[in-house]
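User: Can you write out an input/output pair for a complex, sequences first and structure second?

Assistant: Here is one pair. Inputs:
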Amino acid sequence: MAKNLLIVESPAKAKTIEKILGDDFEVKSCYGHIRDLEKDDMGIDIKNNYQPRYIVPEDKEKVVKELKSIAKKSGEVWLATDEDREGEAISWHLCEVLGLDPETTKRIVFHEITKPAIQSAVTRPRTVDMNLVNAQQARRILDRIVGFELSPVLWRKMSMKNNLSAGRVQSVAVRIIAEREREINAFVPVSSFKIEALFTAKDLAGKQVTFTAEGKKQASAENAETFLNGCKGADYTVTDIQVKPGKKTPAAPFTTSTLQQEASRKLGYSVSRTMILAQKLYESGKITYMRTDSVNLSETAMDAITKQIGSQYGDKYIQPRKYKNKNESAQEAHEAIRPTYMDSLTVEDADCRRLYELIWKRTMASQMADAELEKTIAKILISTGSNDGPSAGTTLSSIREELTASGEVLKFDGFLKVYMEDRDEEDITEEDGQEGMLPPLAIQQKLPLKEMRAVERFTRPQPRYTEASLVKKLEELGIGRPSTYAPTISTILKRGYVEKRDKEGIKRDFRIFQLKDNKVEKLVEQENTGAEKSKLFPTDLGLVVTDFLKQYFDDIMDYHFTARIEEEFDEVAQGKILWNKMIDDFYNPFKKDVENTIENAERIKGERELGLDPASGKKVIARMGRYGPMVQIGDVSDEEKPRFAKLKNTQSIETISFDEAMELFRLPRNLGQFEDSDVVVNIGRFGPYIAHDKKFYSLGKEYDPYSITFDEATPIIVEKRAAKEERTIKIFEKEKIQVLRGPYGPYIKQGLRNYKLPKEKQDNAADLSLEEVKAIIEEVKANPPKRVPRRKKGS
DNA sequence: CAGTGAGCGAGCTTCCGCTTGACTT
């Protein structure tokens, strides 16, 4: 009898399942979606109740052809795509393409790829759930409408001619970045003074140790100084000691989003790097599926984990836990991300090792005991305190100045033995100082003061987003899915809405009042503030597009738009509403907005007036031009042509000052004549350069185009010219072919392409004739060199 | 490699979510 055909989405999964199911089934994969909306005319017949027009994309033709031919030879076809909205739709598309009846074709699901789960699933087949399929179709069609209606609006209204795009997910992602930037720009830091007292006491071994106690924060420098003066000659007495137990609980096993976050914080990986490595681990069978929003672990996995904990650390470290998803939009088609075999502590592949070990540790920790702590809080009374209460004449007897020293001791490490989750910058508060151990203290003990300081501290704005913290935010808002977090970030970077870069901090003075040897002294120190590494910054393009979309399509840009339509998709999935009705309710007002915008909206300029040019009296403005953000003196309607200058890439239309703008007009600078030609310095598409005698010489980082002198510029011209001559072996002027000397030997350059010389011709490259050179070019073109992908050792 | 900046019109672009290889550089 012919085998049955079982179709899953992922080929790696297919292999595993085939082993489990044995001889009755042939298991094949369809590699995700096999059909999509046609691109022409949106692929939707809007007048005909939004009927979708599906096609098999070119890159899926091969898979579809193969599945068709196998299906023909097979017994029954079983559909085992993922148990979520998209998976259900894939099953339906398979029915359509393979000519199966969705009402009778067997559909099974598993949340985990384990023997018991798969064997039991096979005993309980159902059929395709058309309501769920319709919810997916509604999702797909809505996204297509939004994307393919909004993007062309941008093409019409933006002067920049990039391939601009807009969509339900990407546009909100850019908005998140844009708004954070504006919060930071508008932030005004407020300072206060933190009181820190350093005391000494004997530790258990009898050694003198120093510890810190903190006092009430002082709002102003005056208060801080008064406070310290009031402490002159004071005694410090321990008045209270409290010991409280505490505990720490492990984090849930990894989902895609939390894996991306932790790999970013602990290993410094970008989200795409994390996903590439995770994919490798998955394909080699080391971990479970890496695109998941579920924190669930299978029973078999829980057993293996607890067994591993027991044998490695002892039974008292075991604490089995079931985690629940916080996120309502989670569709939980898979397990959490975990090692397939808990007794594999590491992997061979050096690239993947750190990520694997992170997954292994997190998985272990999730089933381990709480860490137990002991927190000690000691109150220290300042003898002079009551005299320094807020104001004289106060009647409150409770006003006593005191200091608080706190310490923490780990009593039982529990899960901390293997793993501690890191936190994002924004979640770290000032109170999170390093809480070390306190020496043993007794009530009424007098403490000698080493010194007391009032240190000025400033409030800080929220930090800019990293790729991973943006993913976290998107997930919280229910926007995007595990399979799209990394691609969404790539899209907004590629479109130029957002940039990933570092920002240097700026130096800032802060004040310290120091009480030592009964004298109060004022010091001023410097700190670096606002430095950020590998953060997401909105570009001017991102800012103006966001403003535009918010103005005309505020509903789609709303942070809760996705959550709202998800509720409607759910109603479609439950059969409560019809998908075409839902789309129609969305489309009609949306289409009106689109038409209104095309009709009435002005072109997007993001214009900002900076002031008047003292030389001409004309207006100086910053705005978006065809080639990006720029500053402009005068207007195109003026008789005299306006002057233009491009912004530096760290500058922004929104924040550039008048002075900074005027500075930009100092280029191009003519430094004078050299060898009868002008030496002109400017900044071009590829950075600063010197132009001389129709040739261009790049300026290295060591020179500033605004200040470089004639005497500095001319040697650069001479040197670079010499270096170029050094490299040139022969030039065929007419054919625009050069024979050049490179670091790997002589080569031929024609246009942008390079051709390596064959070994036997390398020694006398200078003697090559035009015919020989042309022959080599043809030869290399016919047999292009094969590039061997570089592999790291150990893989 | 190193320019440009207005507007028109041809011809093109564009979404989100599911999966991996097949391609260059």
